[in-house]
Amino acid sequence: MENSNELKNLVKEKYAEIANQSKTVNEASCCGVGSCSGVDYTVFSEDYSKLKGYNPDADLGLGCGLPTEFALIKEGNVVIDLGSGAGNDAFVARAITGEKGKVIGIDFTDEMINKARDNADKLGFHNVEFRFGDIEKMPVAANKADVIISNCVLNLVPDKVKAFQEIFRVLKQSGHFSVSDIVASGELPASIKSGAELYAGCVSGAIKKEEYLDIIQKTGFENIRIQKERVIAIPDNIYLKFISEEELKKFKESGVNLISINVYADKPKSCCEPGSGCC
Prior knowledge:
- There is one protein chain.
- This protein has a seven-stranded mixed beta sheet, with helices on both faces.
- The chain is globular.
- The chain has eleven helices and seven strands.
- Helix 6 links the parallel strand 4 and strand 5.
- By secondary structure, the chain is of the alpha/beta class.
């Protein structure tokens, strides 16, 4: 597997391509980008169309859940959407927090930021802002957000410990997060974990569910709970682009599954920053 910077550049490249396509094109392709040479980026997605605030121009079919459905957003909240893409979850969050609230989307793909800003302009939203930035070092002051959401993005962050530390820093005391993400029910085989294209497709970046929850707990969060969980079925033809039939057979026999989870956790009401030794 490539180093951290190479992985980030790979993700930027793939999602820049996706930003320049419609959801219809993504779904018509067996890989989400271009020809049938890669991963189907829409295989994890759920239907947003009935949610208040949904805007089809912002929906590229890239999520793996509906984090706003569980995020307990209130009117007037400051909400931050990590990996905001074309603005899909940010606009749904804005419909809940209303004119008195604020939504900040963060993404490190220029094409996605531009697309999201164009969508916000078309909708006339003045309390939705999209910032270019890295989740491992957010361009946001400490204690800013009431709620943080994210949809199938944290599995793409190489340093997940740093990502959750940043979430902790940016949340207000007594704030909380609700994120949808991809995890594994066991250890993924090396043949899958080493696939760069599978990483960008949210597959090989998935860590074990127990490890994921342990990172959250060690960061200092409390009231950690899984709000929703479902097994993701990846078509064999996608795996076979990257691994052999024998490797695929062994993987299936192992019983390890990819799982979409929605995770909630609170930042304690009174606590200092991670690493200070007082929590």
